[in-house]
Amino acid sequence: MQTIPVENVPGSNLQIRVGDGVIDEAAVAGEMQFHPAADRDTAARSAARALVIQELLRQRAITLGLHSDGFSDPGENDIARMLEQELTVPEPDEEACLRFYHHHPERFCEPPRYRVRHILLAAAPDDAEERDRQYRQSTRLIKTLTQHKEYFTDLAQRYSSCPSRDQGGDLGWLSPGQTVAELDRALARLPEGLHDRPLASRYGWHVVHVDEHREKRPLSYNAVQERVVRELTEQATRMALRHYLLALEAEIGVEGFSLDDDGMDGSLMR
Predict the structure, then answer these.
(1) Where do the domains of the chain lie?
(2) pLDDT tens digits, 125-141
(3) 3-state helix, strand and coil shares in percent for the chain, rounded to the nearest 5
(4) Using only C-alpha atoms, what is the Rg of the chain?
(5) I need a surface site. Which of 171, 194, 204, 223 has the fewest CB within 10 A?
(6) In whole angstroms, what is the distance from residue 55 CA to residue 52 CA?
(7) Full-prediction pTM beyond 0.70?
């Protein structure tokens, strides 16, 4: 049978055969909406790969008689039940878990934390006049606070547009990702104390005081043991599923496409 390389999908004569089933151009085009990518060819390859995997699993479930009513195609529950029966996923032992923990210390750390107070001088991004006015106001506040740090609570309650003004500007303990991106990036490099310049964000200008900065620190193995086991089990499951699908591809037969490439993992569980 003449087939078209997947690099050309969708093409006018696209045809992928999986056992006794055929995946045509229209099916790939319909699946592409679920595989956003930088370019059309990449999306088409991902879509074709997902459809091949679905068809392999469907045909295997039918062979095993695992469709619920015996008449319609197997559903998601049938496929899940089949995979539970047919996949062999070894449980990670203690030695493997400890080795993984020690080889990946960056994964098992408490993130850095910052105890922060701020005063927000609100100004919309497109209001140049107001942003300029609020910038000047924020510099005056910083000048005052440089000489009288004890005024921070009063000034926050008087000037800040953030709800934290009711707590004297106190944002509490923050970890990366818990505040607006512009402020989040700045906190990673700010020392403790009052920052000597206003910090800009989409909301306006921030007068920032870092009360305390705690660096990230490694967590003990006992604290993350369950997470280590879970990560290793997920890795083993993906590997077992990959081998299972490659075996199905060889047994059932696929023409016009090959699963044996580095891009398969992203489509395994669709």
Answers:
(1) 6-93+226-267, 110-217
(2) 999 999 999 999 999 99
(3) 50, 15, 30
(4) 28
(5) 223
(6) 5
(7) no
